[in-house]
Write a structure and sequence with these properties.
Blueprint lengths: L2 H45 L3 E2 L5 H17 L1 H13 L7 H34 L10 E2 H18 L2 H10 L5 H6 L1 H15 L5 H24 L4
């Protein structure tokens, strides 16, 4: 199937579910918003001490953003199913193989978010706030805090998907295992760019917290392809 034809099939399949998906995300955001004070308190207790706001609408917007990202997190299995169904349609992937990709995509996403929330974020925040002193007291905006943790957690969830997409592209014949092996240097460059885009702040520490695990996932994708005997 030609690339432009595959794109048309993908968009047509995606259009079938996009309206229901948008409505579901909006409804879930509204429901989570009612619980957002307790959710923010839970996250704050794990990652920060005190939060402040510097605009009148700051707390409200922070709760809206947190509710939206939480809704995406909860509905990720549905979102994943819609996206995989659309992506797999041009290549004729369906049934058990499609269910395999959906299941492991969700598994890797939640593994990535938990890894970030329980390990990477606490270490990163502790390291960055370690530069505080008697003269430099951290005053953290609630809006920036919500943006920081949301983008970081969802970003980690997305980068953990790398191995499953490598397997998919090799299975449908877009890329081969040898292609991944020969282009490690370009993978490092691409990983650096992705880490710079996805991390909320452009400092080297945050980029490293995302870039290093991403490269390890790239190598794990190659190993999985080798074990599955996919060339």
């Amino acid at each position: 199937m030609r690339p432009h034809t595959s794109l048309i099939v993908f968009l047509n399949e995606l259009r079938k579910s996009i309206r229901a998906l948008g409505f579901g995300i909006g409804l879930a955001t509204l429901v989570v918003f009612l619980l957002s004070p307790r959710l923010l308190q839970l996250v704050q207790g794990h990652l920060a001490n005190k939060l402040y706001f510097f605009t009148i609408a700051g707390p409200f917007l922070a709760h809206v953003k947190l509710s939206f990202f939480a809704a995406l997190y909860v509905l990720m299995p549905w979102i994943t199913t819609v996206l995989w169904r659309a992506m797999a349609k041009p290549f004729g992937v369906k049934g058990l193989p499609l269910a395999f990709f959906v299941f492991f995509t969700c598994l890797l996403f939640y593994a990535g978010t938990l890894f970030c929330y329980l390990i990477t974020l606490p270490m990163g925040i502790k390291f960055l706030l370690g530069y505080g002193s008697e003269q430099l007291k951290p005053v953290i905006s609630v809006t920036r805090f919500v943006n920081f943790i949301s983008m970081f957690i969802l970003g980690f969830g997305l980068i953990f998907e790398l191995p499953i997409f490598m397997v998919f592209m090799a299975k449908v014949g877009i890329c081969t295992r040898k292609f991944y092996e020969k282009n490690r240097r370009y993978a490092v460059l691409a990983i650096s760019i992705v880490a710079a885009i996805l991390t909320p702040t452009p400092d080297v520490v945050n980029m490293g917290l995302m870039g290093v695990p991403l490269y390890m996932l790239y190598e794990s994708g190659i190993i999985i392809l080798f074990l599955m005997r996919i060339r």
